[in-house]
Amino acid sequence: MGKATGKNGWKLKQSKMSKATGAESSISERPISLGPRRLAEWLNPTGAKKVHSLVDKVYKMKNLELAWERVKQNDGSGGIDNQSIEEFEENVQANLQKLHEELRMNTYKPQPVLQHKIPKVGQPGKFRKLGIPTVYDRVCQQALLRYFPLQRFLCLMNQVLGIVKEDQQRMH
């Protein structure tokens, strides 16, 4: 049977028999493909292999500055190093530059989190552990969050925290 183009650019194709029932089927419609179907083909029409890294975007100073503003806005207490938001802010440019260099050189290592027990809601006498990262680590986390979807970020943090837990177990 022949192909015809109907309204709105749909390709009409008539088949003789349905595969499931063996009965004659009606006309099926498929869109006419005027260009590449996959997003990757639209972005890279030549097919050249490109490797894009998000890490260089994470450690850009502008991103770290925006991350710092977010951490400062959220407030909160210091982690295991007892450094407050105000103390971090006193040397903010030096701290951000240090974080930038550590991320760029792949030498960044997060500090262990400070564990604080807080009461469970509706369960008197029961507590849950709350992990409080250092301000420095919170800036790094915020910088990562800007470029990674939350689900991927949580998976990444679980991997990082798993490494931190192993380090803590070795110390004790």
Describe the SSE topology.
Elements: E1 3-5, E2 10-14, E3 27-31, H1 39-43, H2 55-58, H3 61-74, H4 85-90, H5 92-104, E4 114-119, E5 127-132, H6 135-145, H7 150-171
Antiparallel strand pairs: 1-2, 2-3, 4-5
Describe the structure in your own words:
The N and C termini lie far apart (77 Å). Strands 1-2-3 form a 3-stranded antiparallel sheet, with no helix packed on it. A two-stranded antiparallel ribbon has the order 4-5. The protein has helices at 39-43, 55-58, 61-74, 85-90, 92-104, 135-145, 150-171; strands at 3-5, 10-14, 27-31, 114-119, 127-132. The chain has 172 residues and is an alpha+beta fold. The longest helix has 22 residues, at 150-171. It has 2 domains: 3-43, no CATH class; 55-171, no CATH class.
Features:
2 domains, alpha+beta, 5 strands, 172 residues, three-stranded antiparallel beta sheet
Short description:
The chain is of the alpha+beta class and 172 residues long. 44% of the residues lie in helices and 15% in strands.
Helices, by number, come to 7
Number of domains: 2
Overall strand count: 5
- How helical, in percent, are the residues? 40-55%
Which shape, going by the Cα principal axes? globular
Order of helices and strands: EEEHHHHHEEHH
Q: Would you identify the regions where 5 or more consecutive residues have pLDDT less than 50?
A: none
State the distance separating the first and last CA atoms: 77 Å
Sheet-strand content, in percent, reads 5-15%
Rounded radius of gyration (Å): 27 Å
What strand line-up does the widest sheet have? Answer: 1-2-3
